[in-house]
Amino acid sequence: MSNRYHDFIEANKQLWSKLSTSDCSNGLLVVEAKRHPVISHANAVLACIIKEAKGLNIGWIDTGDKQVQERLASYDSDSRTVSLTNLTWLDSLFIILKFVFSSIRVLLTRDVRGFHLDGIPFGDILYDSYLARFKVATIRNVNKGVITTLFILIRNYYRFKRTLQDCGASAVLVSHQVGLSSGVLMRTALGLGVPVYLRTAGNNKVALNLFNSLSEIYQYPYRPRSVDMQLLSSLGENRLNKDFQDLMASRVLGLGDEDVGRAYNRRKKVYHSKSEFAKEFNVSEAKPFVFVMLHAFNDHPHSHFGKMLFRDYYDWFVQTLDFAKTKPDINWVFKEHPTTAFYPTHDISLPDHFIKCPNHIVFLGVNSSFNSQSLLYLADVVVTVLGTAGIEFAALGGIPSILTGATSYSGFGFAIEPKTKAEYFGILDNITGINRLTQQQQDTARKCFLYIQRYSYVPFSFSPLLTLEETKESKLDSYYWKRVTESYKENSDVCLAEFEKYVQCIRRENFSRLNRLQVIEH
Fold first, then answer.
1. Domain 227-455 CATH class label
2. What is the pTM of this model?
3. CB contact at 8 A, 116 and 110
4. pLDDT in tens, 225-239
Protein backbone atom coordinates (compact mmCIF):
# COMPACT_ATOMS: atom_id res chain seq x y z
CA MET A 1 0.00 0.00 0.00
CA SER A 2 1.41 3.39 -0.96
CA ASN A 3 2.28 5.81 1.78
CA ARG A 4 -0.35 8.53 2.17
CA TYR A 5 2.50 10.99 2.71
CA HIS A 6 4.27 10.03 -0.54
CA ASP A 7 4.28 13.50 -2.16
CA PHE A 8 5.50 15.17 1.00
CA ILE A 9 8.19 12.52 1.55
CA GLU A 10 9.59 13.12 -1.92
CA ALA A 11 9.56 16.89 -1.45
CA ASN A 12 11.09 16.52 1.99
CA LYS A 13 13.93 14.33 0.76
CA GLN A 14 14.62 16.78 -2.04
CA LEU A 15 14.81 19.74 0.37
CA TRP A 16 17.11 18.03 2.85
CA SER A 17 19.35 16.68 0.09
CA LYS A 18 20.41 20.27 -0.61
CA LEU A 19 22.20 20.36 2.74
CA SER A 20 25.64 18.91 3.30
CA THR A 21 25.51 17.48 6.81
CA SER A 22 28.30 16.28 9.08
CA ASP A 23 28.88 12.84 10.50
CA CYS A 24 27.40 12.30 13.95
CA SER A 25 29.02 10.44 16.81
CA ASN A 26 28.04 12.30 19.98
CA GLY A 27 25.08 10.17 21.01
CA LEU A 28 21.36 9.84 20.40
CA LEU A 29 18.70 12.57 20.36
CA VAL A 30 15.37 10.92 21.20
CA VAL A 31 12.38 12.79 19.73
CA GLU A 32 8.95 12.46 21.29
CA ALA A 33 6.17 10.70 19.39
CA LYS A 34 3.52 13.21 18.29
CA ARG A 35 0.77 12.48 15.79
CA HIS A 36 -0.33 16.10 15.48
CA PRO A 37 1.10 17.17 12.11
CA VAL A 38 2.19 20.68 13.11
CA ILE A 39 4.01 19.45 16.21
CA SER A 40 5.49 16.43 14.44
CA HIS A 41 6.85 18.52 11.58
CA ALA A 42 8.34 21.24 13.78
CA ASN A 43 9.93 18.64 16.06
CA ALA A 44 11.44 16.85 13.08
CA VAL A 45 12.97 20.00 11.60
CA LEU A 46 14.41 21.07 14.95
CA ALA A 47 15.76 17.56 15.48
CA CYS A 48 17.70 17.89 12.21
CA ILE A 49 19.01 21.30 13.27
CA ILE A 50 20.11 19.97 16.66
CA LYS A 51 21.69 16.93 14.99
CA GLU A 52 23.87 19.10 12.80
CA ALA A 53 24.71 21.52 15.60
CA LYS A 54 25.54 18.97 18.29
CA GLY A 55 26.55 15.88 16.31
CA LEU A 56 23.69 13.76 17.66
CA ASN A 57 21.98 10.94 15.81
CA ILE A 58 18.18 11.07 15.69
CA GLY A 59 15.84 8.46 17.14
CA TRP A 60 12.09 8.94 16.62
CA ILE A 61 9.98 7.35 19.33
CA ASP A 62 7.66 4.92 17.56
CA THR A 63 4.15 6.25 16.95
CA GLY A 64 2.87 2.79 16.05
CA ASP A 65 2.10 3.95 12.49
CA LYS A 66 4.58 2.69 9.86
CA GLN A 67 3.63 5.38 7.39
CA VAL A 68 4.27 8.10 9.96
CA GLN A 69 7.66 6.55 10.76
CA GLU A 70 8.50 6.50 7.05
CA ARG A 71 7.55 10.16 6.87
CA LEU A 72 9.83 10.95 9.81
CA ALA A 73 12.70 9.03 8.21
CA SER A 74 12.48 11.32 5.16
CA TYR A 75 13.93 14.18 7.22
CA ASP A 76 17.12 12.24 7.92
CA SER A 77 18.03 9.00 6.16
CA ASP A 78 20.38 8.03 9.00
CA SER A 79 17.72 8.37 11.70
CA ARG A 80 16.09 5.38 13.36
CA THR A 81 12.93 4.45 15.18
CA VAL A 82 13.11 4.00 18.95
CA SER A 83 10.50 1.52 20.12
CA LEU A 84 9.03 1.97 23.55
CA THR A 85 10.38 -0.80 25.73
CA ASN A 86 7.95 -3.64 26.33
CA LEU A 87 7.50 -4.04 30.05
CA THR A 88 7.97 -7.47 31.57
CA TRP A 89 5.38 -9.01 33.86
CA LEU A 90 7.60 -8.05 36.79
CA ASP A 91 7.65 -4.46 35.52
CA SER A 92 3.88 -4.51 35.17
CA LEU A 93 3.44 -5.93 38.66
CA PHE A 94 5.73 -3.24 40.07
CA ILE A 95 3.74 -0.52 38.29
CA ILE A 96 0.45 -1.90 39.62
CA LEU A 97 1.81 -1.97 43.16
CA LYS A 98 3.18 1.56 42.79
CA PHE A 99 -0.19 2.68 41.41
CA VAL A 100 -2.15 1.10 44.27
CA PHE A 101 0.13 2.66 46.87
CA SER A 102 0.01 6.05 45.16
CA SER A 103 -3.77 5.93 44.77
CA ILE A 104 -4.26 5.22 48.44
CA ARG A 105 -1.92 8.05 49.36
CA VAL A 106 -3.69 10.55 47.07
CA LEU A 107 -7.13 9.41 48.28
CA LEU A 108 -6.16 9.73 51.95
CA THR A 109 -4.30 13.02 51.70
CA ARG A 110 -6.45 14.51 48.91
CA ASP A 111 -3.19 16.15 47.86
CA VAL A 112 -3.13 15.79 44.07
CA ARG A 113 -0.58 18.52 43.46
CA GLY A 114 1.87 17.04 45.96
CA PHE A 115 2.30 13.76 44.09
CA HIS A 116 5.92 12.67 43.38
CA LEU A 117 7.60 9.69 41.73
CA ASP A 118 11.23 8.91 42.58
CA GLY A 119 11.58 12.43 43.91
CA ILE A 120 10.27 14.00 40.70
CA PRO A 121 7.28 16.36 41.12
CA PHE A 122 4.37 15.16 38.99
CA GLY A 123 1.39 16.45 40.99
CA ASP A 124 0.92 19.55 38.84
CA ILE A 125 0.91 17.43 35.68
CA LEU A 126 -1.55 15.01 37.30
CA TYR A 127 -3.89 17.84 38.28
CA ASP A 128 -3.73 19.66 34.95
CA SER A 129 -3.98 16.50 32.86
CA TYR A 130 -7.14 15.50 34.66
CA LEU A 131 -8.70 18.90 33.93
CA ALA A 132 -7.75 18.67 30.26
CA ARG A 133 -8.75 15.00 29.75
CA PHE A 134 -12.17 15.35 31.33
CA LYS A 135 -12.78 18.97 30.27
CA VAL A 136 -13.56 20.26 33.74
CA ALA A 137 -12.70 23.50 35.54
CA THR A 138 -11.57 22.15 38.90
CA ILE A 139 -11.03 19.09 41.09
CA ARG A 140 -13.66 18.95 43.80
CA ASN A 141 -12.72 15.46 45.01
CA VAL A 142 -10.33 12.67 44.13
CA ASN A 143 -12.57 10.69 41.81
CA LYS A 144 -12.24 7.85 39.31
CA GLY A 145 -11.01 10.23 36.62
CA VAL A 146 -8.14 11.44 38.81
CA ILE A 147 -7.17 7.87 39.63
CA THR A 148 -7.19 6.70 35.99
CA THR A 149 -5.10 9.74 35.07
CA LEU A 150 -2.70 8.79 37.87
CA PHE A 151 -2.33 5.29 36.41
CA ILE A 152 -1.51 6.62 32.94
CA LEU A 153 1.07 8.99 34.41
CA ILE A 154 2.78 6.23 36.43
CA ARG A 155 2.77 3.81 33.48
CA ASN A 156 4.18 6.46 31.13
CA TYR A 157 6.89 7.40 33.59
CA TYR A 158 8.25 3.90 34.03
CA ARG A 159 7.97 3.06 30.35
CA PHE A 160 9.73 6.27 29.32
CA LYS A 161 12.38 5.66 31.95
CA ARG A 162 13.12 2.14 30.76
CA THR A 163 13.09 3.22 27.08
CA LEU A 164 15.57 6.08 27.62
CA GLN A 165 17.86 3.77 29.57
CA ASP A 166 17.66 0.95 27.01
CA CYS A 167 18.32 3.15 23.95
CA GLY A 168 21.12 5.11 25.62
CA ALA A 169 19.57 8.53 25.09
CA SER A 170 22.00 11.44 25.21
CA ALA A 171 19.31 14.11 24.86
CA VAL A 172 15.54 14.36 24.38
CA LEU A 173 13.42 16.74 22.30
CA VAL A 174 9.86 17.58 23.39
CA SER A 175 7.28 20.18 22.39
CA HIS A 176 5.60 20.90 25.75
CA GLN A 177 6.42 21.16 29.43
CA VAL A 178 2.95 19.87 30.24
CA GLY A 179 0.81 16.78 29.71
CA LEU A 180 0.98 13.04 30.24
CA SER A 181 3.22 12.57 27.21
CA SER A 182 5.57 15.54 26.71
CA GLY A 183 5.58 16.72 30.32
CA VAL A 184 6.20 13.27 31.77
CA LEU A 185 8.88 12.46 29.18
CA MET A 186 10.66 15.74 29.89
CA ARG A 187 10.78 15.24 33.65
CA THR A 188 11.66 11.55 33.32
CA ALA A 189 14.66 12.44 31.16
CA LEU A 190 15.82 15.19 33.50
CA GLY A 191 15.42 12.79 36.44
CA LEU A 192 17.88 10.48 34.66
CA GLY A 193 20.28 13.35 34.03
CA VAL A 194 19.46 13.47 30.31
CA PRO A 195 19.31 17.04 28.88
CA VAL A 196 16.03 18.10 27.29
CA TYR A 197 15.47 20.44 24.35
CA LEU A 198 12.06 22.11 24.59
CA ARG A 199 10.73 23.27 21.22
CA THR A 200 7.84 25.68 21.54
CA ALA A 201 6.00 28.57 19.81
CA GLY A 202 3.47 28.70 17.00
CA ASN A 203 3.31 26.98 13.64
CA ASN A 204 5.41 29.52 11.69
CA LYS A 205 7.74 30.54 14.49
CA VAL A 206 9.83 28.53 16.91
CA ALA A 207 11.72 28.80 20.18
CA LEU A 208 14.19 26.31 21.60
CA ASN A 209 15.35 26.05 25.21
CA LEU A 210 17.80 23.61 26.75
CA PHE A 211 17.04 22.16 30.20
CA ASN A 212 19.72 20.33 32.16
CA SER A 213 18.17 19.58 35.54
CA LEU A 214 14.87 19.12 37.37
CA SER A 215 15.45 22.42 39.15
CA GLU A 216 14.76 24.15 35.82
CA ILE A 217 11.35 22.62 34.98
CA TYR A 218 9.44 25.79 35.80
CA GLN A 219 11.70 28.05 33.76
CA TYR A 220 9.20 29.29 31.21
CA PRO A 221 10.67 29.34 27.68
CA TYR A 222 9.47 32.88 26.94
CA ARG A 223 10.49 34.48 30.21
CA PRO A 224 13.21 37.08 29.60
CA ARG A 225 16.44 36.34 31.44
CA SER A 226 18.87 39.03 32.56
CA VAL A 227 21.05 38.29 29.51
CA ASP A 228 18.02 38.72 27.25
CA MET A 229 17.14 42.06 28.81
CA GLN A 230 20.76 43.19 28.38
CA LEU A 231 20.80 42.13 24.73
CA LEU A 232 17.48 43.87 24.22
CA SER A 233 18.79 47.10 25.73
CA SER A 234 21.85 46.90 23.49
CA LEU A 235 19.62 47.31 20.42
CA GLY A 236 19.12 50.96 21.37
CA GLU A 237 16.12 53.00 22.44
CA ASN A 238 15.17 54.10 18.93
CA ARG A 239 14.85 50.57 17.64
CA LEU A 240 13.04 49.37 20.76
CA ASN A 241 10.57 52.25 20.61
CA LYS A 242 9.86 51.56 16.96
CA ASP A 243 9.48 47.83 17.57
CA PHE A 244 7.14 48.48 20.47
CA GLN A 245 5.00 50.91 18.49
CA ASP A 246 4.81 48.39 15.63
CA LEU A 247 3.82 45.66 18.07
CA MET A 248 1.18 47.85 19.68
CA ALA A 249 -0.24 48.88 16.32
CA SER A 250 -0.48 45.29 15.12
CA ARG A 251 -2.22 44.13 18.31
CA VAL A 252 -4.76 46.94 18.15
CA LEU A 253 -5.52 45.78 14.61
CA GLY A 254 -6.03 42.24 15.91
CA LEU A 255 -2.93 40.93 14.15
CA GLY A 256 -0.96 38.18 15.82
CA ASP A 257 -1.99 34.90 17.42
CA GLU A 258 -5.55 33.68 17.91
CA ASP A 259 -5.88 35.28 21.35
CA VAL A 260 -4.97 38.68 19.92
CA GLY A 261 -7.33 38.33 16.96
CA ARG A 262 -10.25 37.51 19.22
CA ALA A 263 -9.45 40.00 21.99
CA TYR A 264 -8.95 42.88 19.55
CA ASN A 265 -11.67 41.86 17.12
CA ARG A 266 -12.25 44.97 15.03
CA ARG A 267 -15.93 44.12 14.67
CA LYS A 268 -16.33 44.62 18.41
CA LYS A 269 -16.83 47.92 20.15
CA VAL A 270 -14.03 50.04 21.58
CA TYR A 271 -15.16 52.09 24.60
CA HIS A 272 -13.18 55.32 24.68
CA SER A 273 -14.48 56.64 28.01
CA LYS A 274 -15.74 55.42 31.36
CA SER A 275 -18.95 57.35 30.88
CA GLU A 276 -19.67 55.51 27.63
CA PHE A 277 -19.14 52.12 29.27
CA ALA A 278 -20.97 53.10 32.47
CA LYS A 279 -24.04 54.20 30.54
CA GLU A 280 -24.20 50.97 28.56
CA PHE A 281 -23.70 48.65 31.54
CA ASN A 282 -25.56 50.71 34.13
CA VAL A 283 -22.65 51.28 36.50
CA SER A 284 -21.24 54.43 38.08
CA GLU A 285 -18.49 56.13 36.10
CA ALA A 286 -17.27 57.74 39.34
CA LYS A 287 -16.15 54.40 40.78
CA PRO A 288 -12.77 52.82 39.95
CA PHE A 289 -12.84 50.12 37.25
CA VAL A 290 -11.10 46.83 38.07
CA PHE A 291 -10.85 44.32 35.24
CA VAL A 292 -10.60 40.67 36.32
CA MET A 293 -9.16 38.85 33.31
CA LEU A 294 -10.25 35.24 33.43
CA HIS A 295 -8.38 32.20 32.16
CA ALA A 296 -9.38 29.14 30.17
CA PHE A 297 -9.96 27.08 33.29
CA ASN A 298 -8.49 23.76 32.11
CA ASP A 299 -5.54 25.15 30.15
CA HIS A 300 -2.85 23.63 32.39
CA PRO A 301 -2.90 26.11 35.28
CA HIS A 302 0.01 24.66 37.27
CA SER A 303 2.50 22.89 35.03
CA HIS A 304 4.22 25.90 33.45
CA PHE A 305 5.16 27.91 36.51
CA GLY A 306 4.53 25.66 39.51
CA LYS A 307 3.31 28.40 41.85
CA MET A 308 -0.22 29.62 42.43
CA LEU A 309 -1.97 31.01 45.51
CA PHE A 310 -5.25 29.27 44.72
CA ARG A 311 -6.15 25.67 43.96
CA ASP A 312 -6.63 26.46 40.29
CA TYR A 313 -7.96 29.16 37.94
CA TYR A 314 -11.55 28.37 38.84
CA ASP A 315 -10.93 28.52 42.60
CA TRP A 316 -9.30 31.94 42.13
CA PHE A 317 -12.22 33.16 40.03
CA VAL A 318 -14.92 32.03 42.47
CA GLN A 319 -13.20 33.48 45.53
CA THR A 320 -12.45 36.74 43.71
CA LEU A 321 -16.07 37.03 42.57
CA ASP A 322 -17.35 36.38 46.10
CA PHE A 323 -15.07 39.10 47.40
CA ALA A 324 -16.10 41.53 44.67
CA LYS A 325 -19.74 41.17 45.66
CA THR A 326 -18.85 42.69 49.04
CA LYS A 327 -17.11 45.75 47.53
CA PRO A 328 -19.82 47.95 45.93
CA ASP A 329 -17.49 50.96 45.85
CA ILE A 330 -15.69 49.37 42.87
CA ASN A 331 -16.88 48.45 39.37
CA TRP A 332 -15.66 44.87 38.91
CA VAL A 333 -15.56 43.79 35.29
CA PHE A 334 -15.01 40.06 34.77
CA LYS A 335 -13.84 39.33 31.23
CA GLU A 336 -14.00 35.81 29.82
CA HIS A 337 -10.87 34.51 28.11
CA PRO A 338 -11.13 34.94 24.32
CA THR A 339 -10.35 31.30 23.42
CA THR A 340 -12.47 29.44 25.98
CA ALA A 341 -14.32 27.76 23.10
CA PHE A 342 -11.25 25.58 22.66
CA TYR A 343 -11.19 24.67 26.36
CA PRO A 344 -14.79 23.73 27.21
CA THR A 345 -15.76 22.86 30.79
CA HIS A 346 -18.54 20.35 31.39
CA ASP A 347 -18.78 20.83 35.14
CA ILE A 348 -19.61 24.57 35.23
CA SER A 349 -21.43 27.29 33.34
CA LEU A 350 -19.51 30.53 33.64
CA PRO A 351 -22.46 32.87 32.85
CA ASP A 352 -24.53 31.21 35.59
CA HIS A 353 -22.11 32.56 38.19
CA PHE A 354 -23.27 36.08 37.36
CA ILE A 355 -27.00 35.51 37.72
CA LYS A 356 -28.40 37.94 40.29
CA CYS A 357 -25.03 39.58 40.88
CA PRO A 358 -25.03 43.13 42.29
CA ASN A 359 -25.06 45.98 39.77
CA HIS A 360 -21.43 46.87 40.41
CA ILE A 361 -20.34 43.58 38.82
CA VAL A 362 -20.22 43.24 35.03
CA PHE A 363 -19.61 40.05 33.06
CA LEU A 364 -18.17 40.27 29.55
CA GLY A 365 -18.56 36.92 27.82
CA VAL A 366 -16.67 35.94 24.67
CA ASN A 367 -19.66 36.99 22.57
CA SER A 368 -19.89 40.45 24.13
CA SER A 369 -19.19 43.33 21.78
CA PHE A 370 -16.12 44.47 23.67
CA ASN A 371 -12.73 45.11 22.13
CA SER A 372 -9.84 44.73 24.59
CA GLN A 373 -8.39 48.03 23.43
CA SER A 374 -11.08 49.52 25.68
CA LEU A 375 -9.03 48.64 28.77
CA LEU A 376 -6.61 51.41 27.90
CA TYR A 377 -9.44 53.92 28.47
CA LEU A 378 -11.32 52.15 31.27
CA ALA A 379 -9.11 50.03 33.54
CA ASP A 380 -7.66 51.39 36.75
CA VAL A 381 -6.32 47.97 37.79
CA VAL A 382 -6.04 44.57 36.09
CA VAL A 383 -6.34 41.37 38.13
CA THR A 384 -5.17 38.00 36.81
CA VAL A 385 -3.44 34.82 37.92
CA LEU A 386 -0.69 34.82 35.31
CA GLY A 387 -2.27 36.11 32.11
CA THR A 388 -0.84 38.27 29.35
CA ALA A 389 -3.16 41.11 30.39
CA GLY A 390 -1.03 41.67 33.48
CA ILE A 391 1.90 42.83 31.38
CA GLU A 392 0.14 43.95 28.20
CA PHE A 393 -1.79 46.85 29.69
CA ALA A 394 1.05 47.72 32.03
CA ALA A 395 3.22 48.13 28.92
CA LEU A 396 0.63 49.86 26.75
CA GLY A 397 -1.01 52.11 29.31
CA GLY A 398 0.86 52.02 32.62
CA ILE A 399 -2.06 50.15 34.22
CA PRO A 400 -1.09 48.31 37.42
CA SER A 401 -1.77 44.59 37.70
CA ILE A 402 -2.26 42.15 40.56
CA LEU A 403 -1.05 38.57 40.08
CA THR A 404 -1.83 35.41 42.07
CA GLY A 405 0.65 33.09 40.40
CA ALA A 406 4.16 33.00 38.98
CA THR A 407 4.31 34.28 35.40
CA SER A 408 6.71 34.92 32.55
CA TYR A 409 7.04 38.48 33.85
CA SER A 410 7.14 37.95 37.63
CA GLY A 411 9.82 39.70 39.62
CA PHE A 412 10.39 42.66 37.31
CA GLY A 413 8.83 45.16 39.71
CA PHE A 414 5.87 46.49 37.75
CA ALA A 415 3.23 43.96 38.91
CA ILE A 416 1.84 43.55 42.42
CA GLU A 417 2.56 39.99 43.57
CA PRO A 418 1.01 39.00 46.91
CA LYS A 419 2.62 36.02 48.66
CA THR A 420 -0.53 34.72 50.36
CA LYS A 421 -4.27 34.68 49.77
CA ALA A 422 -4.75 36.90 52.81
CA GLU A 423 -2.36 39.44 51.34
CA TYR A 424 -4.16 39.22 47.99
CA PHE A 425 -7.56 39.99 49.49
CA GLY A 426 -6.00 42.73 51.58
CA ILE A 427 -4.72 44.36 48.40
CA LEU A 428 -8.17 44.03 46.79
CA ASP A 429 -9.73 45.58 49.89
CA ASN A 430 -7.51 48.66 49.46
CA ILE A 431 -7.41 48.66 45.68
CA THR A 432 -8.28 52.36 45.42
CA GLY A 433 -4.84 53.13 46.88
CA ILE A 434 -2.99 51.57 43.95
CA ASN A 435 -1.30 54.16 41.74
CA ARG A 436 -0.56 54.05 38.04
CA LEU A 437 2.86 52.74 37.12
CA THR A 438 5.82 55.05 37.17
CA GLN A 439 7.51 55.72 33.83
CA GLN A 440 10.38 53.45 34.84
CA GLN A 441 7.98 50.61 35.69
CA GLN A 442 6.15 51.06 32.40
CA ASP A 443 9.44 51.06 30.47
CA THR A 444 10.41 47.79 32.13
CA ALA A 445 7.02 46.30 31.28
CA ARG A 446 7.46 47.43 27.68
CA LYS A 447 10.83 45.71 27.36
CA CYS A 448 9.51 42.50 28.90
CA PHE A 449 6.42 42.55 26.72
CA LEU A 450 8.46 43.27 23.62
CA TYR A 451 10.79 40.38 24.38
CA ILE A 452 7.97 37.91 25.04
CA GLN A 453 5.95 38.90 22.00
CA ARG A 454 8.67 39.59 19.42
CA TYR A 455 12.12 38.40 20.48
CA SER A 456 11.55 35.14 22.39
CA TYR A 457 11.28 33.10 19.18
CA VAL A 458 12.71 32.97 15.66
CA PRO A 459 10.96 32.74 12.28
CA PHE A 460 10.18 29.23 11.07
CA SER A 461 9.56 29.19 7.33
CA PHE A 462 9.49 25.39 7.20
CA SER A 463 5.89 25.47 8.37
CA PRO A 464 2.90 27.25 6.79
CA LEU A 465 0.75 29.56 8.88
CA LEU A 466 -2.47 28.04 10.22
CA THR A 467 -5.37 29.41 12.23
CA LEU A 468 -6.08 28.03 15.69
CA GLU A 469 -9.24 26.44 14.33
CA GLU A 470 -7.20 24.61 11.69
CA THR A 471 -4.72 23.30 14.26
CA LYS A 472 -7.64 21.81 16.19
CA GLU A 473 -9.27 20.14 13.17
CA SER A 474 -9.38 16.35 13.15
CA LYS A 475 -8.87 16.36 9.36
CA LEU A 476 -5.74 18.54 9.50
CA ASP A 477 -3.44 15.64 8.65
CA SER A 478 -5.27 15.16 5.35
CA TYR A 479 -4.16 18.55 3.96
CA TYR A 480 -1.34 19.85 6.12
CA TRP A 481 1.46 18.03 4.30
CA LYS A 482 0.35 19.40 0.96
CA ARG A 483 0.62 22.88 2.41
CA VAL A 484 4.10 22.15 3.69
CA THR A 485 5.10 20.87 0.27
CA GLU A 486 3.81 24.08 -1.33
CA SER A 487 5.61 26.13 1.31
CA TYR A 488 8.84 24.33 0.47
CA LYS A 489 8.48 25.36 -3.19
CA GLU A 490 8.04 29.01 -2.23
CA ASN A 491 10.46 29.22 0.69
CA SER A 492 13.16 26.58 0.18
CA ASP A 493 15.99 29.14 0.08
CA VAL A 494 14.68 30.86 3.20
CA CYS A 495 14.29 27.50 4.97
CA LEU A 496 17.86 26.48 4.18
CA ALA A 497 19.17 29.88 5.30
CA GLU A 498 17.31 29.56 8.59
CA PHE A 499 18.69 26.06 9.03
CA GLU A 500 22.28 27.23 8.69
CA LYS A 501 21.73 30.25 10.92
CA TYR A 502 20.09 28.27 13.72
CA VAL A 503 22.70 25.52 13.54
CA GLN A 504 25.41 28.09 14.18
CA CYS A 505 23.55 29.46 17.21
CA ILE A 506 22.84 26.05 18.76
CA ARG A 507 26.38 24.85 18.07
CA ARG A 508 27.77 27.26 20.66
CA GLU A 509 29.27 25.50 23.64
CA ASN A 510 27.20 27.53 26.12
CA PHE A 511 23.93 27.29 24.16
CA SER A 512 20.80 27.44 26.30
CA ARG A 513 18.19 29.29 24.25
CA LEU A 514 17.41 29.99 20.60
CA ASN A 515 15.63 33.30 20.18
CA ARG A 516 15.72 36.30 17.89
CA LEU A 517 18.24 38.12 20.09
CA GLN A 518 20.67 35.21 19.94
CA VAL A 519 20.40 35.18 16.15
CA ILE A 520 21.00 38.95 15.99
CA GLU A 521 24.02 38.64 18.30
CA HIS A 522 25.42 35.86 16.17
1. alpha beta
2. 0.94
3. no
4. 999 999 898 989 999
